[in-house]
Amino acid sequence: MIHPIPPGTRDVLPDEMRELRALSERLRGAFEAAGYAEVWTPALEYEQVLRAGDERAAGAGYRLFDEHGEVLALRSDMTIPIARVVAGRMGDSEPPLRLCYFAHAYREARAAGELREFLQGGVELVGVPGAEGDAEVVALILDALDEAGLSRHRVGIGDAGLYRSLLASLAVPDELHQPLLERLSRRDLAGLARDVAELGLPRGDRELLAALPELRGGAEVLERAGEAVEELRALHAELERRGAADRVIYDLGLVRELGYYTGAVFEVYDPAVGFALGGGGRYDELIGRFGRPLPACGIALDVQRVHIAQAAEEGLG
Amino acid sequence: MIHPIPPGTRDVLPDEMRELRALSERLRGAFEAAGYAEVWTPALEYEQVLRAGDERAAGAGYRLFDEHGEVLALRSDMTIPIARVVAGRMGDSEPPLRLCYFAHAYREARAAGELREFLQGGVELVGVPGAEGDAEVVALILDALDEAGLSRHRVGIGDAGLYRSLLASLAVPDELHQPLLERLSRRDLAGLARDVAELGLPRGDRELLAALPELRGGAEVLERAGEAVEELRALHAELERRGAADRVIYDLGLVRELGYYTGAVFEVYDPAVGFALGGGGRYDELIGRFGRPLPACGIALDVQRVHIAQAAEEGLG
To answer: Which of A9, B97, B130, B145 is deepest in the core (most CB within 10 A)?
Structure first.
């Protein structure tokens, strides 16, 4: 007798569960030691409410009708629900707010074998703008992964608006921005180069559009990119102040898929595994869409992926 | 701007969340100290698979279609998914198996204000039949609630088959059993008495059917009920052996709503609050429906209700 479970979901048996629980507790301990207080929001939300946060996030996962015909959706991340809470029930709390969460999120799998239910552990820093807030969150995630026993992890840092600004400044027609950004978010640099070649731009501009996403490395990348990365340079200074600057990688081609990011974007890596352990970024307009304009940024870790990276690091000795 | 959440769901803010997390960790610590290992199963299951466990459980909550038109349901408890796992991926594990979980379950609210998403912390003991298994689980739950700081809690104990057997032995027509059992499960003793009066049974039989559900108290209840409660007397002896007999209440009218219970059934009370903190029972046929016949029993606590009882006990001084 076979009794299947839905594709992209998993049963977690005792040995793995013990390790996942210990890992979550270590991450939570690090978040709480830094003053981040845990919150919980319902797994089901009105789709219309999620849409207020981000059009694309709302359609990304499982949807159903309630008994009144309203469309409900399983949360696809915790950032939008927490933005709702910060503007709503926590509307009287004085910023800055430091919040964390451990909860499953649900998304459409885009590739075979990808999980559709995954455990996220993350932080949101609300009310601290720009480089200061970004650096606090990046340094906290690096520390929390130290606590979790990783040693080779890095945070990749890009800028959500950089490529978009470049497209606009080179007068690339608006309707071509989204397809090009999607190539970039999938890291399809060959496809991007082909598309760019067809734009009919002067050679220098074409080269700039193809070269920017290849800029990846330490602080020297920021030197080469000039004025466009002023904000990332400020972030670098803050990270140096916190002693975390040597564990980040600037990546000017980094674009996160969610539409609510407005500034720095982050991806968490470990060289022991070939996938990101998490990500996030600055979203200064999201909470305002729920009625309380406040700058914010956050990072979510995929706890099961961090667990795999733990094991892989141990395997590498 | 109001951004509602679905009825029967809640946002949990930092102060409450800190207490709920501490409570969960204390319960989990007690479960693990007793050898119960934590597992996780997906929030979404194929409805057809849940139905294999219990017809009624499958329709009790939120349902949706996946991209292939299959019906998925949000789990309405963890007992059926764990039965699936014990028969499936854990099929080679030698019984007894001691498992625990902390996960949200989803059900249709039957009354205004009832939660539709609620956090359950519970245990399943697989492969230990009858009184011995029942007593272990009841004593563990009493201990775990001690650890959680409660002091006045009790476990109510009934027998899922008792009233059904009595109806059968008095030749009450089969089609009348379910409506009478539903009255009983809702504790509608007045309605039950009315229905019983209309059965056209001899007076002695009518009195027996009306009187049995009123039998509630200590071991003396078991003396009065005679041979029909042989199994509960064996359970009482086991509870005495474990020093837990003075903290249970025998309640011969106790009927749990789920259809998979086959023996003793449990409800957890605290006199400080007017609702059950949890419940469970023996389900000796459920795991067999997934292909691995094994006796089992378990109890789930509603963590948020235990938290309310904690506060209420403190309030009572």
So the answer is: B145
